[in-house]
Specification:
Cellulose_synth; Cellulose synthase-like protein D3; disordered N terminus; cell wall biogenesis/degradation; alpha+beta; transferase; 10 strands; three-stranded antiparallel β-sheet; 335 residues; disordered C terminus; 13% strand
Length: 335
């Protein structure tokens, strides 16, 4: 079963306190964690790469501001390390040459085995050193990205989240992962999130319905106040929740509402397994069947996927699928 959730919530425009949208956008970008990482990158180890080597500009227009900045390790640190790698490489080659010239004729097979092992470890060491010869760090420039947020050149993105068992992979983790993706600050018509449930369980399907309903509230809240992190569990778990773009009173009012709705969402998600089992028991007791205990959906139809008590055509890897179901502003596709 694969469920696709596509965000369709309208982004809210955030005005700067002084009414200057551009300066407010730059200020928000500068205060964000990603921007802080960009500042931290300019330390005693990392230095900005030459502009000619930057590869973050929009394709086809080299005059536009790059969407990310490239940093390299300082030469005073990198060159001695490269020299040490060269010295070790020469020593390894000399060692192999000595081993070949001084072949042990009394134990040819033992010598050959040790040579193969030495060559393999030497090759593995070389592969491990290659990325360290020229390490780079690329940090997104949020201010430049905001300027190009409506640009048609921004690529479309498909994000796949996989799961199989709501017990081994807690359902609340999956819910928060989907919500954080749906709240991503990216053009809504440019990306989609797909949940692939290999187990085909009803609990994941109904959890995604809850996600779709809560996302209508959570996504505008994240966009309005530039919320980070965008996972509700992590955000509400912080001692202080930073915000931007509005007055404190309005933020606290919206914050209390969203927090209350999220707490109710967690209760509903945690009780889904019990709710589905109780509902199925009620339907099975009221219908005259052949002794097969089916799993029932909320609309009174049998779940075509994996049942709680698995039977033929309703077990993992062997079940029918729902082609498409549309709920509110999100789209689900179950295969």
């Amino acid at each position: 079963m694969a469920a696709a959730v596509t965000r369709r919530a309208n982004a809210l425009r955030v005005e700067a306190p002084d009414g200057n949208t551009e300066s407010g956008r730059a200020s928000l970008a500068a205060d964000s964690p990603v921007a802080k990482r960009a500042v931290d990158a300019k330390d005693d180890v990392w230095v900005a790469a030459d502009e000619g080597e930057a590869s973050g500009s929009i394709a086809g227009d080299g005059n536009r501001t790059p969407l990310f900045r490239t940093f390299k390790v300082k030469g005073s640190i990198l060159h001695p390390y490269r020299f040490m790698i060269l010295v070790r490489l020469v020593a390894i080659v000399a060692f192999f040459a000595w081993r070949v010239k001084h072949k042990n004729h009394d134990g040819v097979w033992l010598w050959a085995t040790s040579m193969v092992a030495d060559v393999w470890f030497g090759f593995s060491w070389l592969l491990n050193q290659l990325p360290k010869l020229n390490p780079v760090k690329r940090v997104p420039d949020l201010a430049a990205l905001a300027d190009h947020s409506g640009d048609a050149n921004l690529p479309g993105i498909d994000i796949f989240v996989t799961t199989v068992d709501p017990v081994d992979e807690p359902l609340l983790y999956t819910v928060n992962t989907i919500l954080s993706i749906l709240a991503t600050d990216y053009p809504v018509d440019k990306y989609a999130c797909y949940l692939s449930d290999d187990g085909g369980t009803l609990v994941h399907y109904e959890a995604m319905i809850e996600v779709a309903n809560f996302a209508v509230l959570w996504v505008p809240f994240c966009r309005k106040y530039c919320v980070e992190p965008r996972s509700p569990e992590n955000y509400f778990g912080m001692k202080t929740q930073p915000y931007a773009g509005s007055m404190a009173g309005e933020f606290m009012r919206d914050h209390r509402r969203v927090r209350r709705e999220y707490d109710e969402l967690k209760v509903r998600v945690d009780s889904l397994s019990t709710t589905i089992r109780q509902r199925s028991d009620a339907y099975n007791s009221s219908t005259k069947g052949d002794g097969v205990r089916a799993t029932w959906m909320a609309d009174g139809t049998q779940w075509p996927g994996t049942w709680i008590e698995q039977v033929e055509n309703h077990r993992r890897g062997q079940h029918a699928g729902i082609v498409q179901v549309k709920v509110v502003s999100c789209t689900f596709r179950l295969v």
